[in-house]
Amino acid sequence: MTLSFEQGPIRPPSEAASLLLRLTRNCPWNRCAFCRSYHGETFSRRSVEEVKGDIDKVAAMCEVIRQNSRDGDVDMDVLLELHKEGSFQTFHVASWLYHGGKNVFFQDANSLVMQTKDVVEILRYLKERLPWVERVTTYARSSTLARKSVADLTAIGEAGLSRIHVGLESGSDAVLKMINKGTTAKQHVEAGQRVKASGISLSEYIILGIGGKGLSREHSIETAKVLNQINPNYIRIRSLTIPKRTALFEMAQRGEFQEETDPEVIAGARLLVENLEGIESNIVSDHSLNLLEEVNGKLPEDKPALLAIFDRYLKLPEKDQLIFSLGKRWGLYRVLDDLYNPVNYPRVTAVYERLQQEGSYRGTLTELKNLVI
Question: What is the dihedral of CA 146, 148, 151, 156, to 10 degrees?
Fold first, then answer.
């Protein structure tokens, strides 16, 4: 099949089974100190007609895929055959159909920078051409959302946008300035409250450790304050990595940013969750890079259980904290219950002791983190 449509490079982990459609290219800000996703790329808006054309291509691909499937159902045999043919986009659409074909994610980093009327037109056309779609989500920046009226956001929601993913990162103005986020705590609150008022589901992403050693406590306390004012549907946990060729990497090299250890990061995360009050958000640790993936629950009822997970890790002997960190980054551990696995614990311990003798534990951990991205 020769049809193809344009797609961007990233999407949230929660949208792994979603169809990816590109409304804008790259990021209009593209200056965050910790990010290199769009390094060297220029931002641009795609036209409504371009996006509609991509939707038409997807619709045509769906028809052909279903015609070549038994009883119109896309099964594993169909996926294997398309994978052999080497057509990535056809395989992507087929995989999307295999997983139900219900969810769509609009790329890239800030789709709602487009005019409201254009987003509404695209959403309506999507529902017309792919009527089985049930959920449509996208990334957006708080600085953009704060310029949208509640009426605008409501119109976008009524046209079919189900959820907005926002990179809050931190609620501390000092941290936001340090990482050159291009937004303020006040804008985060205003944007989040407008999205909630519109009825669109809101996911706010926080980065554990982004304050470094110098702003750790402020990051936790101020982020909790902002989240308490927004009451997002989801608070999604992310962990700091410092890739090379980023401003934050250069700051760390100069000693202007000191990265926290895993126990310090977890202590900060506990402080943040401890200070979440009066909200009904779902806390989700849905990234393999997160040290404690088991931190998942609904506020306020699950708050004691969430704090208990942090406490369990923090009460471990220091050596076992370090062993768990290594095993988790190595992919042998997923949750704390895995730590003393009779097969893996001796195996990870032996590697840990060797790395400590060589003085290369921290460097190895950093390398393993960067491999996961």
Answer: -120
